[in-house]
Amino acid sequence: MEAILQLQPLLNIKSICYLSPKPIIFLHQNFRPLTRSRVTFCSSSPTPFSTGNSLIQQEDTIIFSLLERSQYSHDSVAYDKDVIFLDDSKGSLVDYMLFQHEKLHAQVGRYKSEEENTFFPQFFPNPRLPHVQYPQVLHHCADSININHKIRSDYFEKIVPEIAKAKNNDEGGSIAVCDILCLQALSKRIHYGKFVAEAKFQEARSKYEAAIKAKDRKLLLELLTDKTVEAIVKKRVELKAKAFGQVVQIDEAYNVANPTYKINPSFIANLFEEWVMPLTKEVQVEYLLRILD
Ligand SMILES: O=C(O)C(=O)C[C@]1(C(=O)O)C=C[C@@H](O)C=C1
């Protein structure tokens, strides 16, 4: 991978702008809506325990990406570690495409956005554009929190083998494209924990301060956990996985066959319960631990 990092010099791009959605911090209904500079903190849910727009939208992106990925195999040439690329660099096709994808996006300012976290933090080119500026909402410690290495290894070891059913197809390029979409969607959702933690801290500073000063991770985790919200997230994700992932089969008389699913909906729901939300909380704890620095 080191070698890949030394690939060609950056292109000189002067006039492209990376468009990120306006950063929106989701909050529970029980958080007051806040505004701060150009950032809107909003709560769109009518119920006291549900999460707001951004996380809900990100669930859709994750589920659609996983569904796309599920049509390909998990033992593809795309994962062959010893593929040789330009300049004798070695890595898998997926590594190479992810790296080049991020490098291009870094050049146009993507990773200047607080919502974005690179998979190659050791290689972090400054944008080639003069005026890439995003609103700064988070404490500066946010830059030092990046758990993409874990997201990446879990994704390839635990998620892909479960969702990718086909055997031995060689569509390595398509597989890499899908993997990049999945990884970036999961990474964004999980690192949104920084925004959640910032919102929670602003709302109830005194609740967290003692635990932060005592560096008490366990207590912080307890304080920020809301099991009712987690149960709602899990159920909503399961319903979405059913709705988006149903294989619709009808005969000539329009009779609909019993539904089958591209990915078992409970797998996706459990993924959120056992992996996405715990990692989001891990990011929240890391952020809170540094917020008083
Ligand atoms: O909504 C919150 O309060 C969050 O912290 C987010 C989140 C999640 O990842 O969805 C994480 C922890 C909580 O226990 C509930 C939900």
TrEMBL record:
* Matching Pfam families: CM_2
Q: Which GO terms describe its cellular component?
A: cytoplasm
Q: Which residues form the Chorismate mutase domain?
A: 174-284
Q: What class of enzyme is it?
A: isomerase
The GO molecular function terms of this record are: chorismate mutase activity
| Keywords, comma-separated and alphabetical | Amino-acid biosynthesis, Aromatic amino acid biosynthesis, Isomerase
Which PANTHER family would you find in this protein's record?
A: CHORISMATE MUTASE, CHORISMATE MUTASE 3, CHLOROPLASTIC
Provide the E.C. number(s) assigned to this enzyme.
5.4.99.5
Pathway it acts in? Answer: Metabolic intermediate biosynthesis; prephenate biosynthesis; prephenate from chorismate: step 1/1
Please tell me the species this chain comes from: Vigna angularis var. angularis
As recorded in Swiss-Prot or TrEMBL, the protein's gene is named: Vigan.10G046500
Q: Does the keyword Transport apply?
A: no
Q: Which reaction does it catalyse?
A: chorismate = prephenate
Alphabetized InterPro entries for the sequence: Chorismate_II_sf (IPR036263), Chorismate_mutase_AroQ_euk (IPR008238), CM_AroQ_sf_eucaryotic (IPR037039), CM_II_prokaryot (IPR002701)
Full protein name: Chorismate mutase
GO biological process: one example: chorismate metabolic process
